[in-house]
Amino acid sequence: MQSQEPAPVYTQYPTELPPTFPIGVHRTAPLVNVTELQAHLRLLGAISKLKSDVQTRGVSARSKDTAWVVFVNRAVFRFFEWVNALWIPSEPGLDETRVPPLDVLMVWHTYLLNPRTYFEDSQRMESVYANNLRKLAEMPLTLIASLIDGQTLDPLPPSTERQQFFERMTKLSWYMPLSTESTETLCVYCPFCKNANPNVRWVTDHDTGYAQTKFTHLCQSCYKDFNKVALGMRRFVDEVSLRRSGSVVFFSETLLDPPTGKVDEAAARKFIAKAFKALDGQYKALSVLQGPNAEEEAAKLGRVLNWDFEILCDRLHEGLRPNSLPDRSKRNPRLQRLAVAYSNPGLASLDLVGAVLRQGSFISKMDELGWTRPGRFDLVSESAPLVRSIARYHAFLDLMIAHNSTFCVPTLDIDLAWHTHQLKSVHYRASTTQLVGRFPNHDDNIGPNILSTAYDLTAKAWKRRFGVPYSICGCVPDGEPESRISKFAFKISSGFKKRDDSHGSPANNTRPDLVSTEEDEADSSHPSEHTIKFVNPSDATMAKVRADRQHRVDKCVASARKGAARDPWRGLQAERSKREGHKEAFTDSHSYAAYYPYWGVSAAIPLGYASFLGLVYVTG
After folding, report:
1. How far is CA 599 from CA 70, 326, 428, 587, in A?
2. Does 599 or 464 have the greater pLDDT score?
3. In which residue ranges is the amino acid composition biased (Basic and acidic residues) (predicted)?
4. Got the DSSP string for 128-145?
5. Domain residue ranges of the chain, discontinuous segments joined by +
6. Rounded CA gap, 333 and 359, in Å?
7. What is the DSSP-derived secondary structure letter of residue 377?
8. CA 427 to CA 223: how far, in whole Å?
9. How many of the other CB atoms lie within 10 Å of CB of 498?
10. What is the pLDDT of residue 249?
11. Span 515-525, pLDDT tens digits
């Protein structure tokens, strides 16, 4: 299906946004603007500076990466304390005195970039936390940017009122230490007996601290060892208890309609009743509780499930498939995502520590592009890359409509605009639902092989729809053999008509709003890889996936070089693939391996509610 409107005509790279963009059958005013992208980049620069400070001055840690992982753990803890405090105003939004410290902003920023999870967590039950999330659905980027020094990227000293407000509401210091000593502790409530353990260490010499991979602690009341999975499962059994007592509670991954992301309470109730059928039949998990035994009943359910989200997933499958034995290799993706949502401590339905660490990969890419450098886009004459980023984001949404069964993967510049839009959560949900017909999620825990194949398909669709390459950074030239694509569960070519392959040339760029031939802008169209989940970088299967892709890339480059006269765009891509410092996307472990020793393998979270074979990730 071709775009219904003729392509705009430009004589040079645009430095101002047009009044409207086409998305499907609609025309819309720009969903984000240059000022918002500039403010977002300043925040990213400040987070990058914070990370650098932690890694260079966090001398107590055994390595730079360890120091950062510990710091992020503490930041996530502080974020939960901030959101769960009784301070949110009656009206949404923050003024200057309510803006928290940078470490807390960093976690909030990452949470918002998982839009369906954030939205569902704010809607699925009544609690202080959920209510506050609803009031914190819009990140005030320009206000936050004004609180960051434009030259040093350090946070400006807070006003007395701002600092005192945060400290009064959270009972925490405004300033978090960059390094963590082994004597520093936090209070954690035992998942088994719910008694306080006020002396849980953040770090220990044996990596068993709360901010470390092997966390375990002996409860001072019941004398049982507990870990983070048990803490996550405590949240699950507490929600079961609330539901049994008559409160309205929808479990994670149940409230939103999978295709659209809209709230559907009736469908959620049916799904819960079916999935929980086995648990309810055996342990009365959904039955109204008679008498004052809620705590004991919750603990009993936890013991039945061995405080393990994997066993929870098995029991839920018994509800859907009562006559078959659990086969963990063939789990229902939605049920698996439900169970994994309760595998982490805290109040969010995702591992916020892992999410912040993965987001760091994207921030590093913005640094490498030079886009977070102070003053980079201060002059209007230098704003063309940001204008193009916004234009390409709107085209990306248009592509989603044209290929609504395709798992579309963004490039770095598109991802910046996409992230910026997601930080305006209410507007993002409303505008995408109206324009695209659904509320697209931004899954950030995807297997490398899935992401790389989906990227190739996105690039192919883009070139056919808009007539110019998706990326000119030097990664796999477009035009992979159709036979490879046919191995997957869908055919990307079904959504559009065959068009003439004469797409012009770099010397005659017909769409400077969508692609730049400037050498110094090449890397902005590199595939965005920060969504790759943490896996063991030495895993033999993953090593083979990377090697196979590199082999195919080499063949594509050779073919493109031979056909450069016939397709100059592919020739340019092949030429740039050999640039010094260029890294072919998805062919090494640099995007996801750095924190593996310090945070471990990501929990297995299927791609949305769909299969692994390519359906667009439109779900939380």
Report:
1. 10, 28, 31, 22
2. 464
3. 523-532
4. HHHHHHHHT-B--HHHHH
5. 380-595
6. 24
7. T
8. 49
9. 7
10. 96
11. 998 888 889 99
Closest to 409 measured CA to CA, from 559, 588, 265, 616 = 616
Residue 182 three-state SS? coil
The SS3 assignment for 12 reads coil
- 367: tokens are 């640094």
Confirm if 496 and 402 have CB atoms less than 8 A apart.
Answer: yes
Asked whether the predicted pLDDT for residue 570 surpasses 90, the reply is no
The residues, any chain, with a CB within 8 Å of residue 218's CB and separated by 6 or more, are 224, 225
Give the separation between CA 183 and CA 379, rounded to whole angstroms.
49
Q: Which of 21-30, 494-503, 515-524 has the lowest mean pLDDT?
A: 494-503
In this prediction, residue 14 carries a pLDDT of: 82
Q: How many helices (H) and strands (E) does the chain have?
A: 22, 6
Residue with tokens 């009562």: 322
Going by their DSSP bridges, the two strands 185-189 and 26-28 should be labelled as: unpaired
State the average pLDDT over residues 384-411. Answer: 92
For residue 489, the model assigns a pLDDT of 33
Task: Supply the DSSP symbol for 151.
Answer: T
- The answer to whether residues 234 and 89 touch, using CB atoms and an 8 Å cutoff, is no
Rounded Cα distance between 256 and 266, Å, is 10
- CB 521, CB 472: distance < 8 Å: no
Total-model pTM: 0.88
Dihedral over Cα of 367, 368, 374, 379: its sign: negative
3-state secondary structure of 257: coil
Q: Which residues contact 114 (CB under 8 A, 6 or more apart)?
A: 350, 355, 441, 442, 443, 444, 620
Q: What is the pLDDT of residue 572?
A: 77
Interatomic CA distance for residues 254 and 249, integer angstroms: 10
Q: What is the mean pLDDT of the chain?
A: 83
Kindly report the number of other CB atoms within 10 A of residue 348's CB atom: 25
Q: Phi first, then psi: give them for residue 20, nearest 5 degrees.
A: -145, 160
Q: How many CB atoms lie within 10 A of CB 113?
A: 26
Length of the chain in terms of residues written: 620
Would you say residue 339 has pLDDT above 90?
yes
Query: CA-to-CA distance for 620 and 383, rounded, in angstroms?
Result: 33
Percentage helix, strand, coil for the chain under 3-state DSSP, each rounded to 5: 45, 5, 45
